[in-house]
Amino acid sequence: MKKHVYIIAEVGPNHNGDVNIALKMVEEIAKTGVDAIKFQMTNPYALYSDDSFKATYQKNNDKAPTAREMSLRIQLKPEEHLLVYKRCKDLGIDYICTAFDIDSLKFLDDHCDMSYYKIASGEIFSLDIIDYIAQHNKPIILSTGMATYDEINTSLNLLNEYGKHDITILHCISAYPAKYEEVNLLNMIELRDRFGYKVGFSDHTIGNDCAIAAVAMGACMIEKHVTYDKKANGPDHKASITIEELMSLVQSIRHVESAIGVKEREFSETQREISRVARKSVVSRHPIKMGDVIHKEDICYKRPGIGVLPIQQNLVIGKKAVVDIDADRVIKMEYLE
Q: pTM for the full model?
């Protein structure tokens, strides 16, 4: 069975708090062939303390004076998330939403049939969120930006405290955008081998190259930030791709996963036809009369490959012809005894 790479279009806060933009993005993204569209939900007063501050990339890309005010501006209301969830469901696409506080997580769990719990890189030690997820039987996506191996192991142990879960670990670079030289895709393979879970890639680079490479290396899941306008005011727009670029990414991923195939060597009918055309057979160098014993000097090797292979010439040499064989003809076993 061919594997299917699960592609997540991360809208996050790129609707800038406007539910009409969010709904429109869902409609357009659904046409690209992704498997899921992901959003983010929080109560900024439950997420940010008075001592919170913005990261440099947020300062550069968002005009709000504080982290909390930035978050307040770009949040959808809980009831608006339900509208977005319904639109996704109507269009046959999975709705996923990262919760950044426990009440938001419980709301989503009560009202939205999400295919995964998504744990953001910054939430891998949020004990209330982790403990809640650990007690529920739903697949988990764990982003690992900024986390050491020991920290990832600690989070996995917490998530599995009540029983082993279906977890996909996302290799992730917590930079917006991430530089190519920082991506280190080989570490995705190390995460798989070290922890024994499925792995994917949450791509914060500009462009699609790294996501496509990750699929070729074995990623079973790709997450990519998407925006309606890279120039819009907001923290994530500049590190996102457009919906048109997303469509190109999906097509490339589907091509690559088809090309990966299976470990066994398989040959299509087209390849078998080419084999018959391009390989050589044992061919009569000159006319051979019925009753003649065939010697090595009586044969040569020419196309097509529909007879005895040159490496099987001993099946012909020393045998007696039971029919007349014209010159320059493929010698078939039924001509011999």
A: 0.88
